[in-house]
Amino acid sequence: MRNKLSLSGWLGRTLNTARLPELGAREFSVLELLWDSDGLTSQQVLQQLAAAKLSLSTVQSTLERLHRKGLLERTKTGRAFVYTAAVTRENMISRLLHEIADNLADGDSAPMVSGFLEYLGEDPSDRRGGVPRQRVRRGRADD
Fold first, then answer.
1. Is there a smaller number of Cβ atoms within 10 Å at the N or the C end of the chain?
2. Distances (CA, A) of 52 to 14, 49, 82, 91
3. How far is Cα of residue 125 from the mean position of the Cα atoms in its chain?
4. How far apart are CA 83 and CA 73, in angstroms?
């Protein structure tokens, strides 16, 4: 059996590849708010999620869970905590892609890149399911 050598193999796969904790829909919504801000208190998060009709205690417990999962940082300002995202959106995507490659392709990123190229070639209206109308051409450059 041949050993696969790759950049991640040389680096020991230690850079930002820790498994991500599972996130519920509310946790992800809060994380998205914090990615788009410089920091928010629980009261500000509640105001921005007004359509969800949540209580302040629900928002506070969601923020606490995200903090315990290592996805948020917080600093005490007066009597309230100000929460900021501890991971960037890009880092989250990178970590998810590492997990996909590890779980579905034994760490090989080639099938993932191929699938992503196919995704980019789809009609945007087809991205929620169904068969893509257009595929990325592969092969010789003069095809």
1. N
2. 38, 6, 21, 27
3. 22
4. 6
| pLDDT, tens digit (0-9, with 9 covering 90-100), for 34-86 | 999 999 999 999 999 988 899 999 999 999 999 999 999 999 999 999 999 99
- Residues 27 and 122: their CA atoms lie apart, in Å, by 30
Tokens of 67: 């903090």
**Mean pLDDT for the stretch of residues 106-127:** 78
Rounded CA-CA distance 111/76 in Å is 45
What Rg value do the Cα atoms of the chain yield, rounded? 20
The pLDDT value given to residue 73: 97
pLDDT tens readout for residues 9-18: 434 444 445 6
**CA max distance for the chain:** 66
- Judge contact between 45 and 59, C-beta under 8 A: yes
Amino acid at 10: W
Q: How far apart are CA 82 and CA 65, in angstroms?
A: 15
CA 69 – CA 81 distance, rounded (Å): 17
- Rounded Cα–Cα distance for residues 59 and 65 (Å): 10
